[in-house]
Batch of 4 targets.
Target 1
Amino acid sequence: MSSPNAIPLPGIDPADLLGDGIIPNGARLTVSGGSAFALGEVGYVHTDGTVRRGTPAGTEAQAQIAVICMVAAGVANGAVGLFGFGGCLVTGLSGLTPAALYYLAAAGAITATAPASGYSVIVGRAVSATVLHFFPRDPFNLG
């Protein structure tokens, strides 16, 4: 049961909240924006409470909200899926380079290649070839 002082969060099921309205490392959220998410893709919670794909391109304001959550399993547009927040471990991935940092790439994808221009957004570090420690960082404008 959440506290009467808890901030209401659109799109977040109250059953996913811990006492006092604290969001655990994952929540069930609805996907929107016209695109399905594949396991390990990155998105952000829109003001309407739905999840949309993250992107490193665009204005600084867009980049600042781009990385909030990573999908824990594939989910179709309009469906509800489980998304992990900062600090979670996302399992079931493949082809990761252990100990490598991963960055936000186009359309919610992640890459071990640091961008040369635009915004650099670190999303986490590979723990193994199949597990990513998701810890999104603030975007850095490379100029």
Note: Residues 13 and 28 are 7 Å apart (CA to CA).
Target 2
Amino acid sequence: MRGKGTFFILAVLVAVFAVEMAKGAVGDELALLGMGALPNDGRLHGEYWRLVTYSALHLNYAHLLLNAALLWWVGNMVERRVGTAWLAVAYLSSVVAAGLVIILFDLSRPHPGSGVGASGGIFGLVACALVLMHRRDAARFGQKSGVRLWLWVVIVVGFGASLIPGVSLSGHAGGFAAGLIAGWLLPLHPSPGPRPDEPSRPQGTSPGPSRP
């Protein structure tokens, strides 16, 4: 069974995007600003809730689909290892950290438009998953080298794509840094569940002979 927390976050992103469609705000940065996006001039005017709400908004379908796919993969990986509550802590702390870094950057280089997207929080989960895949006390959850490699691929490609104009390198870096810290500090879930990052074994089959 997949993680409830990951599913809930994904459901929120889809529901908010449906509201964007209903309001005709898809692709309209000004309209998204009115829905809770971060202003690209870095001035919140006391509206600190934007440090969370911006992450639920997406500019277009491709933006949402890319973030949703990555969230589903890495979110389940993290949730299986730390549980639903700590997944929420890791995600939200990464979202807020990303938002703060974006605001600090925008204050120094204000420009028109608004900032949206869950990628700061997702970069945080990727970083968190990478640390968890190397923690010795998390070995019982599985630490396959192939999964570690794919996490590194996502990180390299993600930061490479962050250099494209219009993509927030500052937000991705802020979320990633928060995720690294979360990965080291979060307590582990008491018992492993099904592994979303590894193929499941058919029922009735043996895991193979044990080795000393």
Note: The first helix runs from residue 4 to 23.
Target 3
Amino acid sequence: MFPSDPLQAPLWTVLASLTHARRILEVGCGHGYTAAVMASAGKPNCRVDTIEGDPHHADLAEQSFLQRGLSRRIRVLRGRGQNLLPKLKSHYDIVFLDGDWREYPRYLPHLRRLTRPGSVIVTANLNPLLGGWGGRLPGKRAIQSYLTRLIRDPHFHTYVIPGDWHSISMRV
């Protein structure tokens, strides 16, 4: 678990403004840094659902949200993304994938269902495909499959950020 880069924090303010975000979904909460940044980037009526599979990380995140006064705006959903995404019903304005990239291909049908035109998906952890961390990470085929399907999906326009390990997709 590696926390998000603080230099990326302004991205969430820009995306929240562009989408008029009221609901944000994060898959892969870690200690909760990015969920807190996303909740703070949105207006006071913006809510964040964050999925975390590690119970210890989920506990730490909930404590952090409580300390920051954000616990009413952020809900931690405990479990793996592949198990919880099928159960979600609401539409989200922003979705941030920052979890186990080997699960990403299984997320695609849910990303279509959980977003609407104008929603934005930010996908992190593309490093197994793009050679990050020495290229020693597993999951290159899963990332290739996910990105290929996402780029070819007529419901999304996708841009892979060169030199970063992210993509940004707009639901059309």
Note: The chain has one domain: 6-171.
Target 4
Amino acid sequence: MSVKDREAQVIIFLCNMNHLSHAVLSFPNKKMMVGQFLGDGVRGKDFNYFEPEIRAGILLHRWIDSNLDSFQFIQQIRAEIRSEVGLYSPVFIDILLDHFRAKHFDTLGMGKLKKFQDDWISMLLPFENQMSRRLLGYYQAMLKYQWFQTYESIEGTQEVLIQMAMRLPKSDGLRVASIKMPEFVTQFENDYLQFWSEFESVFFKIQSEHMKDLPK
């Protein structure tokens, strides 16, 4: 595998970092939440091997990844940061979204972030043997570093970006994103709340269609 191919694989892996947002959208259906997480590691039609609610979560995860960029808010962020963050712009957008979701967790009616994180981690434990190798690595890192809570503050999110930049090729854009994180938050935070409301509304319609197809 060439250096270019390895870099492309790293980008593809990191473009799916917004696990908090995925989990919140299918709350409180635990099996759909599991499917939302496992969805990063399930390829092709392999979702058919899972029970119906987990399968629905996997398909909803795919819907989110396929449709997120169609929202004007995401297009606006991408246009604004592309010249500075470059190759890792999709990664930073995912992380920025989870920062906003973590910061506004309580005010958006989800209770305490730590309890949600602890419950989510416990919920996934029985499914470790169904996780792809990289998802298992992410899950184990979550156990160690408590990333959802880390995303709650600008400083914690900056540290995540710096740690990623230290481990990834051609990652100067992530260092820039870390430095400019306070500026980006100021620029986009107000519009995030409207975006989240719009995105939830569309997502819940899609989710309700999947739920109609579940066995009674």
Note: Residues 181-212 form the longest helix (32 residues).
